[in-house]
Design a protein that fits this description.
Helices cover 0% and strands 20% of the residues. By secondary structure, the protein is mostly beta strands. It has one domain. The strands form 2 sheets. A two-stranded antiparallel sheet has the order 1-2. A two-stranded antiparallel sheet has the order 3-4.
Length: 70
């Protein structure tokens, strides 16, 4: 089932437990959800005000019209 999820975070959420920090994905692009795998680097080239649609592999990006996804 395809799903369009609106997320605007461009990096992970840092959680500081006792030993070392844990990074949880906040952009939705990680292939290891809920953990961050660094895929948010793709967000750095996104332009403000545009909607980006990522394929299942999070590898290729298709820029969609501004009204995509409602």
């Amino acid at each position: 089932m395809a799903r369009l999820v609106k997320l605007d975070a461009t990096g992970p959420v840092r959680i500081d437990p006792q030993d070392k920090p844990v990074f949880v994905c906040a952009c939705g692009l990680s292939k290891t959800l809920p953990m961050c795998d660094g895929s948010h680097k793709a967000c750095k080239v996104e332009e403000t005000g545009k909607v980006y649609v990522y394929d299942g592999e999070r590898a290729s990006v298709v820029e969609a019209p501004d009204d995509a996804g409602g």
